[in-house]
UniProtKB/TrEMBL annotation:
Top-level taxon: Bacteria
Source organism (scientific name): Segatella maculosa OT 289
Alphabetized Pfam families for the sequence: DUF4929
Keyword Signal among record annotations: yes
Name used for this protein in its record: DUF4929 domain-containing protein
Record keywords: Signal
Signal as UniProt keyword: yes
Signal peptide (residue range): 1-21
Coiled-coil intervals, chain numbering: none
Length: 409
């Protein structure tokens, strides 16, 4: 799906409403569109203390003081709060921020999706430019309890290699920056050259760890990119009204599973992160099959998408979906072939689809970067760089990730 820059959209709304060529009309007669966007991560655990930041942007600065109400729905039980829900814009001011903070009630057992939009304003010509944003609040970060065997391995690493691996376990701060290639920047990412995501990953010692090789598993928000992955997946499938939902197979599947954005769940894990103590490097690329059973080198992300789980259930039951063809309703059995023909919302079908060990796009200049990982207990960091793409991308996006180890470890 192609996206228009927020600022361009706002100016377009303002110009159309005011017939921009007419200089005699004052700004009070023009529709001043107000857009909301999430700054960085749209996911937050209920025990998170950082919050989610929203950016509020008017198409143009008002000539007098104005107020705008921000409305949140779906927040039954007061799971979160906004630091202020009435914004006071002074004359000449067109931007503001709102912080969504957890009330730390620790009551959620499943993720909760909230909607936030522009509400009442002090001026009838100041109106919402879009439907607002959605954020997801997840239950308290589930930090796995280390077994006695895992603790023994960790003690062994300390004796053998001189580092305390617990500095990288638990809830670890992460910052990820995704730099977009030129074509995708304009086509998919609102003209932005990059996006930055700050948050936390939950990391534990993998079951694949041995006495010689520490292996990590990221059980929540791996590489800090869960929110980004989910956003891209939805844009390419269940929320793509330009392509996916226009073709009959995709639309039929979405209708059959009764897709509900407010109720869906999405999560990601990442295993096989092997630390090499002798060099400080990290091996994190594996060979795996893609959805067409071709072998590719990739990061072994494992996705859970509740909507896709229901699609698989339809397939396993041999269910039938119905499509309009030439004025007639035709039934099709949900099979792997049907899904590959256009009905699949499998994250593996849409996310990270190309080999990352080599440049498969051959763009000039190349947008491929060599995957690398490093850890340094003296500096207190663990870093990754790798290329990443999605179905119909014009090239690789470049991902750079930095983890900050726990202090005092």
């Amino acid at each position: 799906m192609k996206f228009i820059r927020t600022s361009t959209l706002l100016l377009f709304i303002a110009c159309i409403t005011a017939a921009c060529s007419n200089d005699d009309k004052s700004d009070v007669e023009m529709t001043n569109g107000v857009a909301l966007s999430v700054v960085g991560n749209a996911f937050m655990a209920e025990d998170d203390t950082e919050g989610i930041t929203l950016h509020v942007l008017m198409a143009f600065a008002p000539s007098k003081n104005e107020t705008i109400e921000i409305v949140m729905t779906g927040n039954e039980g007061d799971i979160v709060r906004m630091d202020h829900n009435t914004l006071h814009f002074k004359a000449g001011q067109k931007e503001a921020t709102v912080k969504v903070l957890s009330n730390a009630k620790h009551v959620l057992s499943i993720p909760k999706t909230l909607s936030i939009r522009v509400g009442n304003t002090s001026n009838p010509h100041i109106k919402a430019a879009d439907d607002g944003v959605k954020i997801t609040i997840t239950p308290d970060s589930d930090i796995p309890t280390l077994t006695s065997q895992q603790l023994q391995l960790i003690e062994g690493y300390k004796q053998k290699y001189g580092f305390d691996l617990t500095a990288l376990l638990g809830k670890v701060p992460v910052e990820a920056t995704v730099s977009f290639n030129t074509a995708d920047k304009e086509s998919y990412f609102k003209g932005e050259s990059q996006a930055t995501f700050k948050g936390f990953s939950i990391i534990t010692l993998s079951e694949k760890a041995t006495e010689e090789t520490p292996v990590l598993k990221m059980v929540d928000n791996p590489m800090g990119l869960t929110s980004f992955f989910y956003d891209v997946l939805k844009r390419k499938t269940v929320e793509d009204h330009e392509f996916f939902l226009k073709q009959p197979y995709g639309n039929a599947i979405v209708q059959a599973i009764k897709y509900d954005a407010a109720k869906e769940q999405f999560s990601v894990t990442l295993d096989d992160i092997k630390l090499v103590p002798s060099s400080g490097k990290i091996d994190f690329i594996v060979e795996r099959p893609n959805v067409y059973d071709d072998k590719i080198h990739a990061l072994p992300f494992v996705y859970y998408f509740s909507a896709w789980e229901r699609v698989k259930k339809l397939r396993d039951e041999g269910a039938t979906v119905y499509i309009k063809e030439n004025g007639k309703t035709v039934g099709y059995q949900v099979t792997d072939e049907f899904l590959l023909a256009g009905g699949s919302i499998d994250p593996l079908r849409w996310l990270a689809v190309s080999d990352v060990s080599r440049d498969t796009f051959n763009n000039s200049p190349s947008d491929w970067i060599e995957p690398k990982g490093n850890f340094d207990f003296t500096k207190g960091t663990m870093t990754f760089v790798f290329p990443w793409d999605f179905d119909t991308a014009n090239g690789y996006e470049q991902v750079r990730v930095t983890y900050t180890m726990h202090r005092g470890k």
